[in-house]
Amino acid sequence: MSTESPPTVSPVLVLLIGVLAISTGAIIVRLADAPPLVVAAYRCSLAALALLPLAWHRSRDELRRLSPRDWLLACVSGFFLSLHFATWISSLDYTTVASSVLLVNTNPIWVGLLTPFLSDDRISRLTALGILLSVVGGIVIGAGDFRVGGQALLGDGLALLGAITVTLYIFIGRRLRRHVSLLSYVVLCYGAAALFLLAFAIGSGQALTGYSPQTYFWMAMLALIPQLIGHSSYNWALGWFSASFIAVTLLGEPIGSTILAYFILNEAVTRPTLIGGALILAGIYLAARGELRPSAARKAVS
């Protein structure tokens, strides 16, 4: 653990920015007219390339000092991130934004189940109640949107697989961010994810070039907004909050994504969405109260 003083920027504010940024992801994916693996590969590749000059300037000494185990864990984290994007982005071809984002954000369930085995974090009663309320809210949001059978069922399964893989990505990030700076961690993780996704795309015979200027623009926006701003905000916060709390805050994404889908993709906002959104916000509030108790304060490498 670092002995560094508390951050000058509120971790809660950073998480809020992360929620808003990540909420744009599903919409931008729909606007990018390219195969899912190609979209995912560009997302991580452009993000990693943007970080490389900064990492070389500020973090090359730290990167040299990292143990082989840290390098391996960062690459494994990138592998799970690549699987998350490959499965979740693919799910959007088969089911609605609401169903996909709901299922991919069931990670609090998996985090809660795996925390005793994969982490030394402990879930407070308030955080546990927040997880429960948030999951119920997510179920309410998607209750009227689930479709059984055919392509929709395939999409739901891919989104659920995306939730499990992002859970493992969060756990590894939580472990590394206790002693590895944000910049060093994300450049390794995003870079590894990019290499895996490029291999997946090439191996499946998907072309990496030949798309419209609009598609390249949206893939660049995907790298900038939900990846560099959104995921990096969460990865920074992993140094200060438990994996359980980070997973609960990710449940704010269905609210933002559903609102954006209404205005941009003309997907209706239903009464269950409003009720479920209120439950999710209540869950995030309770989880924050449980996480922010003075006895739970944590320090990290910035």
Give the SSE map.
Elements: H1 11-22, H2 25-31, H3 36-58, H4 60-65, H5 68-91, H6 97-104, H7 107-118, H8 125-143, H9 150-176, H10 182-203, H11 213-237, H12 243-249, H13 253-264, H14 271-291
Helix pairs in contact: 1-11, 2-11, 3-5, 3-10, 3-11, 5-9, 5-10, 6-8, 6-9, 6-13, 7-9, 7-12, 8-14
Integer count of domains:
1
Helix content: over 70%
Number of helices: 14
Q: What are the low-pLDDT stretches, counting only 5+ consecutive residues below 50?
A: 294-298
Distance between the termini: 12 Å
Biggest sheet, in brief?
Answer: none
Rough shape?
Answer: globular
Number of strands: 0
Which value, in Å, is the CA radius of gyration? Answer: 18 Å
The secondary-structure element order is HHHHHHHHHHHHHH
Structural class based on helices, strands and sheet pairing = mainly alpha
Q: How much of the sequence is in beta strands?
A: under 5%
Average of pLDDT: 84
Q: Briefly, what is this?
A:
The chain has helices at residues 11-22, 25-31, 36-58, 60-65, 68-91, 97-104, 107-118, 125-143, 150-176, 182-203, 213-237, 243-249, 253-264, 271-291. The chain has 302 residues and is mainly alpha-helical. It has one domain.
Provide an overview of this structure:
It is a single chain. This protein has 302 residues and is mainly alpha-helical. The chain has one domain. It is built from 14 helices and no strands. It has helices at 11-22, 25-31, 36-58, 60-65, 68-91, 97-104, 107-118, 125-143, 150-176, 182-203, 213-237, 243-249, 253-264, 271-291. Helix 7 runs antiparallel to helix 12. Residues 294-298 have low confidence and may be disordered.
